[in-house]
Amino acid sequence: MKPLLVYLHGLNSSSQSRKAIQTVEYVQQHHMEVELWVPDLPVFPSDIIQCLQSHLKKSINQRDIYIIGSSLGGFLGTWLLDWLVNNRHQQKVRLVLINPAVVPHERFEAFLGPQKNYHTGADWVMTEEYVEQLLLLEVEPAPSPENTLLLVQTGDETLDYRLAVDKYKECRAIVQEGGTHAFDHFEDILPEVFDFLTSV
């Protein structure tokens, strides 16, 4: 079976985010032998987990799994890597984190209330229950550091990049000066991303 590549977008984003599209285009342009899954994630963490488990359970011990997670998607990707390890996935699994959220359940307390998805325009409400569900997904310490690549830019205006550098200190990391939370010039680092994902 072809390896499965999962792209996990961030909060109030979608499968049509710039980095998701750039990832898909890179795979297509280079005729890579992978199966892409770039889902529009549900809003609530419990629903996201159900979605991920349902889709990935048939791939456990059947093929390599590559995960790219941006912002909140990085937080979710860390949980997913841990879940795969705990379910004794014997095939290769690799995780790439892009300006990942580290402790979103702490930060989101200040953002309770109405929200709008940037891409779809859908309205929803961030509740205490949402934050509590995120708390249940916290993984400490970071799992399988040898299979994780951290990408951060110091100019991230949304998250403190130092929190990610500290949490994933045992992982390979690329720290770029300047930039933004969106990770400027992501397309330029995609060759290195895929070298890491597909390396033996």
From TrEMBL:
InterPro entries associated with the record: AB_hydrolase_fold, UPF0227/Esterase_YqiA
Domain of life according to the entry? Bacteria
Pfam families in UniProt: UPF0227
Record's protein name = Esterase
Task: Supply the source organism's classification.
Answer: Bacteria, Pseudomonadati, Pseudomonadota, Gammaproteobacteria, Oceanospirillales
